[in-house]
């Protein structure tokens, strides 16, 4: 403390209180103000800094100069941006010209590139697995990732995006974002819609059917026929498919129809591929008389099939690719005790069956193309009866005989109208091979035959030893007989085709004889045409 305070303290030492100097009180008060009013101190410091500003900085000419400089800088930046954009455009042109020199495909017109893209995408039609769908969608992404030019062309062509695939997980149904990104690129064109769901899914979320108005061809790969997505609805009112013309329902198994099954209204349906026909009309509403093509992917009940075919009066093509699992010995028992009258299909021209027993119950007056995938002797007899009953003129026949007896019986005088024959090679003993050669050597045996296709399904050289030698010898004698008889016009056979799964199965000698016989037949046909022209002149 100061001297004055000390003196006062000594003179008043009898007091109990300590006297504080005025300076100490001021310092203490300042510390309190500094602590409590720190924000005010900051504001005071800011004001003090403002006091150091020169008057020239705040005058009007200075502000005008700064604003003018800012405007000039903005204009310069805009000019540089314009020049940069021009340089980038020029760089794109140079790169495009350079790529045209290095990659000539870029010189093709956009229409040609679209056709190339479409060909690249058409290799995986009708997928049957998630892996195939991934392989189909991958080219689209790769095409659009090559360059901006390809991307713009691909996105601008809606036809490249009409083949769509929807993947859904029944355990955790979510939207397929890839599908939803591709769909707007179709520009509302009709689409080919393929839905692949995991095993066990019986109901589908409603968003799967958001694009139903664009469906033209639909493939449902599921375990069961889909159920209504509204669980509280007793019966489904159905969904309308106004443009649907082709439907494929491929399922590994089926269940009994229920009122909750999804009902699809398809007034324009023309082609149907299904694994079941049980309760078909309770799941699918379509005009049966307008259906043109029916394909059965799994064995069905024969009686149900006949009752269905009786309604398909406009059917033009029927395919039954699976044979009955019960065998052919008890097939008649599964028809019931009362025999069914043959069903007349007045428009059916193409028939593909795994077994010929169904021919017993069909009347096919306009049948021209027939495929028999498993031809037994009994099936061949039914074929002959069907041809006689229907008065059909079969022009194309695919035959997979089980034995040579069935083959020889099938190719009889009933098939005199046959023009195109395709058959699988089979084993023959020496007597059967000799009879086969003798049949083909006759000019009255299949007189209108124009082409023969030999099909060898053996994966490799195995125990089977089917040979084309008997056919080659018979056809060679047929050509010689035509020349000797002086009636070469009766020899219409000019085309021989060999379809072998594995190379080296057919002996090299037979291959050489086949090529030589092919040239000989063409030469004979050329001479025949020349004589015909001379005769007309």
TrEMBL record:
Q: Which residues form a coiled coil?
A: 63-97
Q: Does the keyword Nucleotidyltransferase apply?
A: no
State the superkingdom.
Answer: Eukaryota
Annotated ranges, domain F-box: 106-164
Classification via InterPro entries: F-box_dom, LRR_dom_sf
Keyword Transferase included in the entry's annotation: no
Task: Write the record's keywords in alphabetical order, separated by commas.
Answer: Coiled coil
> What is the protein's given name?
F-box domain-containing protein
The opening ranks of the lineage are:
Eukaryota, Fungi, Dikarya, Basidiomycota, Agaricomycotina
């Amino acid at each position: 403390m100061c001297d004055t305070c000390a003196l006062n303290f000594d003179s008043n030492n009898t007091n109990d209180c300590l006297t504080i100097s005025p300076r100490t009180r001021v310092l203490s008060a300042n510390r309190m103000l500094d602590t409590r009013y720190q924000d005010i101190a900051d504001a005071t410091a800011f004001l003090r800094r403002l006091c150091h500003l020169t008057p020239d900085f705040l005058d009007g000419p200075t502000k005008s100069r700064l604003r003018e400089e800012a405007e000039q800088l903005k204009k310069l930046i805009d000019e540089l941006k314009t020049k940069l954009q021009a340089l980038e455009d020029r760089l794109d042109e140079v790169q495009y010209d350079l790529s045209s020199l290095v990659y000539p495909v870029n010189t093709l017109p956009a229409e040609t590139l679209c056709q190339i893209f479409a060909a690249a995408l058409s290799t995986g039609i009708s997928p049957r697995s998630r892996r195939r769908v991934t392989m189909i969608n991958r080219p689209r992404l790769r095409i659009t990732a090559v360059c901006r030019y390809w991307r713009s062309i691909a996105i601008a062509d809606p036809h490249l995006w009409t083949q769509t695939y929807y993947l859904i997980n029944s355990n955790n149904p979510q939207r397929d974002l890839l599908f939803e990104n591709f769909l707007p690129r179709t520009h509302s064109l009709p689409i080919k819609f393929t839905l692949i769901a995991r095993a066990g899914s019986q109901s589908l979320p409603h968003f799967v059917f958001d694009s139903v108005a664009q469906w033209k061809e639909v493939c449902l790969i599921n375990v069961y026929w889909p159920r209504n997505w509204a669980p509280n609805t007793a019966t489904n009112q159905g969904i309308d498919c106004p443009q649907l013309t082709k439907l494929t329902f491929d399922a590994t198994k089926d269940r009994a129809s229920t009122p909750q099954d999804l009902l699809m209204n398809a007034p324009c349906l023309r082609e149907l591929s299904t694994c079941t026909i049980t309760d078909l009309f309770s799941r699918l509403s379509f005009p049966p008389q307008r259906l043109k093509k029916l394909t059965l992917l799994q064995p069905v009940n024969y009686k149900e099939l006949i009752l269905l075919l009786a309604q398909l009066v406009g059917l033009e093509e029927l395919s039954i690719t699976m044979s009955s699992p019960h065998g052919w010995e008890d097939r008649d028992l599964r028809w019931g005790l009362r025999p069914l009258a043959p069903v007349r299909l007045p428009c059916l021209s193409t028939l593909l069956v795994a077994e010929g027993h169904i021919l017993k119950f069909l009347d096919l007056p306009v049948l021209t193309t027939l495929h028999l995938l498993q031809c037994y002797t009994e099936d061949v007899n039914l074929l002959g009866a069907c041809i006689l009953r229907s008065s059909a003129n079969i022009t194309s026949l695919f035959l997979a005989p089980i034995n040579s007896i069935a083959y020889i019986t099938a190719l009889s005088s009933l098939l005199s109208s046959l023009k195109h024959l395709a058959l699988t090679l089979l084993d023959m003993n020496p007597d059967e091979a000799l009879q086969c050669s003798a049949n083909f050597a006759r000019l009255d045996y299949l007189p209108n035959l124009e082409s023969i296709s030999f099909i060898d399904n053996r994966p490799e050289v195995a125990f089977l030893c089917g040979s084309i030698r008997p056919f080659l010898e018979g056809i060679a004698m047929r050509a010689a007989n035509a020349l000797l008889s002086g009636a070469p016009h009766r020899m219409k056979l000019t085309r021989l085709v060999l379809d072998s799964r594995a190379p080296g199965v057919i002996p090299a000698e037979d291959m050489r004889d086949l090529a030589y016989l092919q040239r000989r037949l063409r030469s004979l046909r050329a001479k025949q045409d020349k004589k015909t022209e001379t005769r007309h002149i």
